[in-house]
Amino acid sequence: MPSHHINRNAEDIKRELSVLLRDLKDPRVAGKLLTIMRVQLSGDGSTAKIYVSAMEGFAAAQEATKGLKSAAGFLRGELGRQLGLRKSPELRFIADNSIEEGTQILQKLDELTVKGNDDEAS
Q: How many angstroms separate the CA atoms of 8 and 95, rounded?
C-alpha cells in the first residue's frame, strides 16, 4: 500500500476519532479536553496507534486512555461505518505528554526572556 494512502487513512481516522470522543459517556473520558496528537497506521492498515494528550496533564491522559481502551471495540466499529472501511484497524491508545512538555518549554523560554530583559535594564 503506498504511503500516501496510509497517511490519508491515518488523517481520516484522526478526524473521525476526534468527533467520536466527544460522544463517549465513560467518566474517564467525558469532560476531559483530549487531543489526538497523531495516528500511526501500520503498513497493512491492521493496527493504529493513537497518541492522546490531555490539557489537564499526563495523568489525565493516562486515565483517559484506560477509558478509550475499554471503548476500543465501539470506536473501531464506528470508524468502519463512518469511513466505509472494509476492515477497521485494531486501535491502540497511548498516553502522550507532548502538551505538558510544550507548556514547560514555553515557561522556560518566558523565564529566559524575563531574565534577559532584566540583565539589559541593569
A: 23
CA triple 72-23-31, angle to 5 deg: 100
* pLDDT tens profile 27-44: 888 888 889 999 999 988
Q: Give the DSSP letter of residue 35.
A: E
Three cell numbers written together for 71: 471503548
For the question of whether the overall pTM of this predicted structure is more than 0.85, the answer is no
DSSP, res 1: -
The answer to whether 55 and 64 are in contact (CB under 8 A) is no
CA distance 108 to 100: 13
Query: How far does CA 61 lie from the centroid of its chain?
Result: 9
Longest dimension (CA), the chain: 68
Helix/strand/coil percentages in the chain, nearest 5: 55, 20, 25
Query: Beta strand pairing status for 47-54 and 34-41?
Result: antiparallel
Contact 47, 90 (CB under 8 A): yes
**What tens digit of pLDDT does each residue of 55-70 get?**
888 899 999 999 999 9
